[in-house]
Task: structure prediction
Amino acid sequence: MDTSADLRDTRAGLQLINPAPYNAEAPPEALVGEITPTDLHYVRSNFPLPEHDGTLQVGGAVARPLTLTLDDLRALPSHERAVTLECAGNGRLQMRPLPTGEPWGDYAVSTARWKGALLHDVLAQAEPSAEGIDVRFTGADHGAYHLKPVLADTNREDLSFVRALPLALAADPGSDILIAYEMNGEPLGRDHGAPFRLIVPHWYAVASVKWLSRIDVLTETLTGEFQTGHYMYEWADRPPEPVDLMRVRARITAPAAGSTIPAGTCTVRGKAWSGSGAIARVEVSLTGAGEWFPATLAPPSGPYHWQEWTFDWDAVDVGRHTLRVKATDAAGNGQPEVPLWNRLGYGNNAVEVIYVDVV
Ligand SMILES: Nc1nc2c(c(=O)[nH]1)N[C@H]1C(S)=C(S)[C@@H](COP(=O)(O)O)O[C@H]1N2
Ligand SMILES: [Mo]
Result:
């Protein structure tokens, strides 16, 4: 494990899940503000921190292969977007039977301001072939990885972190995909993909390849461990589906789960987000199976940014109360009461339930 001072500082406030490769979730405070401070932003890495040579190669089926440096990227028009990133494995610990995979609680989600060049502008310079289908993104990180199915040590291979997006999406300026070199106004740190990374708004964060070293236009669809092996919903009763857009979810940030509060008015508050667009409504329930009441929803402060909601609860009855919250997005997607189980434990967006004791 790398324990240099800068890493120790940025890791001190996180909840360790795995020291090597380093995985850590955010503390609950990370969801309180509009923006998560960098040192409270969750970290998920599949391999040890890589060495990056400082260049980005753009090749494959393109008319003009490119080698870009950080300065070249900075010379392109810059765009800054607040983007909520959530790990597809967030909430895995709530699933039964418990799937294999990193045991994430509920805080592998954060929102940062990411600044960089538009992927569209970089691809336009390289001139993708009309035959292009997928764009493959390769991270500089690599290492031994248990291929799926996880059987035995014979099933380990040296792999790089590789993901793809359809060319039509990657080349669309409207998709706002960034090659980001700054996070919250500072150069990107090592855990978050220095010197530059992809940021794919609205997608589960697996698509946002860190330590980006190569971009290749492919004339076929990518298959691979991180594309069609892991990061697939393997349902019990229907064909597998790729993990793509974040599912709609609301979270409670106050009062704290399990806390004791004095009788009186209590402002229940939290966040809600969806990879399918803005949140249309948030509702709160004060009992199990009971009535749902509308919460006050703040307008989105950006297209990829979680939204704040509040609900004034007349907490006059002493005793234990269950609070539930659920969101519906503009596309009409809602949240299930129980996690939608899939073998690798992705995309848990079940309704959050907490209890609070009123004294
Ligand atoms: N190169 C590379 N990029 C990666 C990963 C990785 O292991 N290697 N993990 C992905 C996953 S699963 C997540 S959830 C996000 C986490 O980004 P963060 O560590 O900045 O929060 O990075 C994604 N990009
Ligand atoms: Mo993830």
Notes: The pocket of MTE (ligand 1) is lined by residues 41-47, 85, 87, 139, 141, 161, 191-192, 205-206, 208-211 (CB under 6 Å). The chain has a mean pLDDT of 95. The CA atoms of residues 282 and 327 lie 4 Å apart. The first strand starts at residue 15 and ends at 18.
